[in-house]
């Protein structure tokens, strides 16, 4: 059966074994260490927790002039293969989502050198200026956040390309959707504006190989001041008063070796990603956001259009102009509710500007109360905000109009899913609750900032106060570039 699936993105480490010696060692290049006996020192200028997208970007920038020593502590291992494979992933199952028939979901997060950029879907979009301006508004008058494309500058060896020529059927689908009422086709298809566009992917444009934090910010670096230890599980940050001074880690797979403490002369940098950075820090973990999607609104063609079959065209949908607010996790404090109100204010603006990928439901990421060393408890609380569910309904209706009223109507498509019998909003939402996937692996917003602590910075996706209406890796690279500059300025 020829079908078309519209995928609508919705609003988602031994001290005894260790050779202790003075730095610098005559090391040859940036080195991957398998265990602590191979480390050249027990003290570095900077210690980075997490060798992923943000961690390796910051590590590259802090070691480039050879003045400072950096150690990256990475829980995953080095893997020459790439892409989403359980071997390179954490294995986390979410808490049941009451808004989605209590279904549980696999939480996608990379666990490998290069982090999620090694396993992700490579859709490479930045957010719009308006959205980063919203962060500024949410971060107070002294915020230095501003939209600045220099953070995606040419000297970053992270590449993007549009890939091959569109297939004929894709052109057909594009043309029909572009004529839908209210649909816009932004001129710059990577800029995170709502509308319809061919989107760039994070690959080089010569060999079409994945461009990741590993290829762009680790490989080829010949730096004796830069080391990474893999298979390391940091389990404690030590403070002197309010200042972070060292990180303790244990071996991920060898429990016979005692913990090792690495001193950070200048700064500790947390880059373990949205799910695990909160594990290392006390405080706020309740602003958790991701994009959800409807995996299968399906049609069967009556008359098959010309052109070859394309299983999953991805397109950005027209947003509904709605704004109303309900539903927050009960664990929210007064301060958090206040913060959420501010977000709503900013969101009202974003919605008016048609930017559509802004989920309003908020989840939590909390340590296991029975054992804080266990995996974090991830609760998406997806569709807990009724506005998010309204948007889902609008997306289904939009797909119906697209298939039956646009230029595609000549192909006489029959709706397979949800099926023509589903008509009322309640019926559509009932169907969607059984279908929606609450994550396109864009976890963000778990940490609202580290206040009252010195010598420590968070540089990963968890610092986004609100999710951008775009995929997240490009924004993470920019955050890391900015963070590296700020850390350098603060600690020189
Ligand atoms: C399957 C998947 C598909 C995605 N698709 C896209 C897409 O198409 N386009 C897009 O732009 N974005 C996509 N993303 C999202 C994007 O890749 C992430 O937002 C971004 O890479 C996050 O960067 P980060 O530095 O915050 O975390 P990560 O890159 O995940 O880095 C965190 C690192 O810390 C390590 N770590 C974790 N816990 C610890 C610990 N306790 N101690 C030490 N190390 C630790 C991890 O192994 C990892 O290497 C996808 C993500 C996934 C998982
Ligand atoms: C996840 O499971 C796979 C096997 O399916 C395993 O190879 C991998 O190491 C696991 N990830 C973690 C972080 O334990
Ligand atoms: C989900 O689980 C909760 C708690 O166990 C229960 O009260 C609720 O009825 C369940 N909802 C559905 C739709 O099954
Ligand atoms: C902003 O910075 C000024 C000058 O450093 C300081 O006096 C003020 O308290 C800061 N305001 C906020 C809201 O942090
Ligand atoms: C790495 O750098 C060292 C010293 O700076 C140099 O002698 C060596 O040739 C370099 N190796 C490579 C592969 O470039
Ligand atoms: C731990 O894992 C690393 C990398 O896979 C391996 O080289 C090492 O032998 C393992 N150690 C133990 C004790 O299993
Ligand atoms: C359109 O499809 C319906 C049933 O799905 C069929 O009855 C009708 O003949 C078709 N019309 C054309 C022009 O293909």
**Uncertain runs with pLDDT below 50, 5 residues or more?**
1-29, 308-332
The gross shape turns out to be globular
CATH architecture: 3-Layer(bba) Sandwich
Ligands bound here? flavin-adenine dinucleotide, 2-acetamido-2-deoxy-beta-D-glucopyranose
Largest sheet: 8 strands, mixed
- How large is the count of helical segments? 9
Instruction: Just give the CATH class.
Output: Alpha Beta
Radius of gyration: 23 Å
Number of strands: 16
What pattern of helices and strands is seen along the backbone?
A: EEEHEEEHHHEEEEHEEHEEHEHEH
The CATH superfamily is identified as: FAD/NAD(P)-binding domain
Helix/strand structural class: alpha/beta
Distance between the termini: 64 Å
Q: Classify the fold: give the CATH topology.
A: FAD/NAD(P)-binding domain
Organism: Zopfia rhizophila CBS 207.26
Family: Belongs to the GMC oxidoreductase family.
Signal peptide: 1-22
GO molecular function, one term: oxidoreductase activity, acting on CH-OH group of donors
């Amino acid at each position: 059966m020829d079908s078309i699936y519209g995928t609508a993105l919705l609003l988602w480490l031994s001290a005894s074994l260790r050779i202790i010696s003075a730095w610098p060692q005559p090391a040859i290049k940036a080195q991957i260490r398998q265990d602590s006996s191979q480390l050249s020192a027990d003290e570095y200028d900077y210690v980075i927790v997490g060798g992923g997208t943000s961690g390796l970007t910051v590590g590259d920038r802090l070691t480039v002039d050879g003045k400072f020593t950096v150690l990256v502590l990475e829980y995953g291992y080095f893997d020459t293969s790439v892409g989403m494979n359980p071997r390179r992933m954490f294995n986390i199952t979410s808490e049941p989502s009451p808004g989605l028939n209590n279904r549980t979901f696999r939480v996608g997060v990379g666990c490998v050198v290069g982090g999620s950029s090694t396993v992700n879907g490579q859709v490479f979009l930045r957010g719009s200026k308006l959205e980063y301006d919203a962060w500024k508004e949410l971060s107070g008058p002294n915020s230095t956040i501003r939209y600045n494309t220099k953070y995606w500058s040419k000297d970053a060896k992270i590449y993007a390309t549009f890939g091959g020529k569109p297939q004929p059927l894709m052109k057909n689908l594009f043309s029909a959707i572009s004529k839908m009422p209210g649909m816009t086709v932004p001129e710059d298809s990577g800029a995170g504006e709502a509308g319809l566009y061919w989107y760039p992917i994070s690959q080089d444009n010569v060999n079409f190989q994945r461009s990741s934090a590993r290829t762009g910010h680790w490989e080829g670096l010949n730096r004796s001041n830069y080391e990474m230890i893999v298979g390391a599980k940091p389990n404690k940050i030590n403070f002197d008063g309010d200042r972070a001074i060292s990180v303790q880690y244990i071996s991920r797979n060898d429990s016979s070796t005692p913990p090792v403490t690495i001193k950070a002369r200048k700064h500790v940098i947390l880059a373990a990603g949205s799910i695990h950075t909160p594990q290392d820090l006390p405080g706020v973990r309740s602003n958790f956001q991701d994009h959800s999607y409807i995996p299968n609104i399906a049609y069967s063609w009556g008359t098959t259009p010309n052109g070859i079959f394309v299983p999953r065209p991805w397109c950005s949908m027209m947003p509904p102009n709605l704004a109303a607010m309900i539903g927050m996790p009960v664990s929210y404090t007064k301060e958090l509710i206040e913060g959420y109100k501010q977000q709503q204010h900013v969101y009202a603006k974003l919605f008016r500007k048609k930017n559509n990928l802004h989920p309003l439901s908020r989840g939590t990421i909390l340590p296991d109360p029975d054992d804080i060393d266990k995996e974090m408890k991830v609760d998406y609380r997806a569709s807990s905000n009724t506005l998010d569910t309204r948007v889902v309904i609008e997306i289904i209706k939009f797909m119906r109009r697209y298939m039956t009223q646009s230029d595609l109507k000549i192909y006489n498509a029959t709706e397979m899913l949800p099926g023509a019998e589903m008509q009322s909003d309640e019926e559509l939402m009932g169907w969607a609750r059984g279908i929606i996937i609450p994550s396109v692996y864009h976890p963000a917003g778990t940490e609202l900032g580290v206040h009252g602590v010195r010598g420590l910075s968070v540089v990963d996706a968890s610092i986004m106060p609100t999710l951008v209406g775009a995929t997240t890796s490009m924004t993470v690279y920019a955050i890391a570039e900015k963070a590296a500059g700020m850390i350098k300025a603060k600690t020189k």
